[in-house]
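Board notes, transcribed. Complex of a protein with pyridoxal-5'-phosphate.
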Amino acid sequence: MRFLSTRGQAPSLGFSDAVATGLAPDGGLFLPETLPDFSHDLGRFEKLSYAELCFEFLRVFATDIPAATLREIVNASYTKFEDPAIAPLKPLGKNLYVLELWHGPTLAFKDFALQLLGNLYAHQCRERRETINVLGATSGDTGAAAIHGLLGRPGTAIFILYPDGRVSPLQERQMTCTGVDNVFALAIDGTFDDAQHSLKEIFGDQDFRTKHRLSAVNSINLARVLAQCVYYLYAWLKLPAGERGNVEFVVPTGNFGNVLAGWLLQKMGVQIRGFRVATNQNDILYRMFATGEYRVGAVQPSLAPSMDIQVASNFERFIYFAVGRDASKVREVMATFQRTGAYAFPNFDRSSFSASRCTDAEIPGIMAHVYREHGYVCDPHTACGFKELNPDRVNVVLSTASPAKFPETIRAAIGLEPTHPSLEALKAKPVVRHRLKPDPATIRAFIDAHAVAR
Ligand SMILES: *Cc1c(COP(=O)(O)O)cnc(C)c1O
């Protein structure tokens, strides 16, 4: 299968090249040339384990990797998960389930994609006898998950930018207490959007990209989106058959990567009724689905920091479909948005989406309510999902992080302090981080000095 850029001005690539490239050279994001139809495979998929299902799904896209190799890559990617189900779907009440996506090594849903991406990169380095330098920006969990996907792998180095003081102390420890020398945690003096902005500029510099074989690991990577489709499919198959067609996935949302994956799966022939885009007080996407206008605001730090995003980098993939797969129209929308900070969509099909927003003032009360009603402890991101449920649907709330990552917020809300042994162990390890200004020149100089050579 080939993959096209949403901006239509880059050559199509095979799976491995699209994954290694990250952002397309024309500034767009890769999407499959045609979306496959899985509607006739669902019966056959029902009995599969998580890793088997993931393999069956990905093989349709990763046609340039031999099946046996792909199977090994996929199997290796889901061995570090603590729960045998990988993504357990737990009933909480009538028409209400929670899909726990935090049983991987960094205790957040990003492990699903980044364990796989780490194995894909490692495979490529072996196969092509090349080195790779991975660069990403994080508002918390992506960085930790990306780092744990590439930890100590030969031929790779990873540079992660994060806003200093705006990720949780435990998230920071997951990035800075690794004890390996191919990981560079870069604390920048600015917001996540500042980090993202520098990153876009660095990736726009073709010579620099080529020189260091730079690859992006942020949420725009094609492999991440595809890996994330799998847990929606897995959860859908675990629901009683009579409930599947009425399911609404409730998705705590920041960069729109997670919910986009579910929506793409729906377009691939899986009958999902809808998606709820659940934002925190950084509500650009809530406003988008409420009004049809995409307008950037200022980032406000919140209790759900991994969703502290205004410009949702994956949204361009949705825009591509919303404007009828017209790449020139995507370019126009993105240019207008870049210039003015806003774009009003005259008409687009938002029938699959609803949206909610949850302020910091509401999060503790929701956590307490969920605990009282269901005896369930949820983290602040997941709490945004519980803000509003649809009584006419089977609600599956995606739980995106382990409560143990946010002990202070949870103690304040319900008086309990969840812990996890892997997080306790981090507290004894030394922190290694580099503090940098968020300007592209400074970051480029740091990479020049520390990148793994060919
Ligand atoms: C990244 C993250 C989100 C937001 O996911 P997007 O794909 O950026 O929408 C939500 N919750 C947690 C815990 C996360 O780490």
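The two ends are 29 Å apart (CA to CA). The longest strand covers residues 156-163.
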